[in-house]
Amino acid sequence: MSGVSGRVLVVDDSEVIRQLIRVNLELEGFEVVTAADGAECLEIVREVQPDVITLDVVMPRLDGLRTAARLRADARTAHYPIAIVSACTPADLERGASVGVDGYIAKPFEPMELVALVRRLAERAGAGTG
Questions:
Q1: What gap in Å lies between CA 20 and CA 64, rounded to an integer?
Q2: CATH no. of 6-109
């Protein structure tokens, strides 16, 4: 394995969850940048240039599904793989699919499942298919 596996932008309004995700991904070689909500994500995403974005659904200012929709609507950010990390309802899953979310992990999550999903999305992004 070579050093860093990729950069992940972790977006969640819970500092505890952000840190939990950060620790698990950093242990697997990922570089992690965090944002507290969707509005902050949109402010920093082009500067950060992540390989993968993880989004909680329920957040203040701008929720995860609206954030995903805005990312997909902007040609500069439409290519980023997006994983929802949230206690999703079936309606959330349908909305996520309609805006182009690439994967889901339900809270509470198993850390290795999260790492596996992020790695899969990062590898797909790195394949240069976009």
A1: 18
A2: 3.40.50.2300
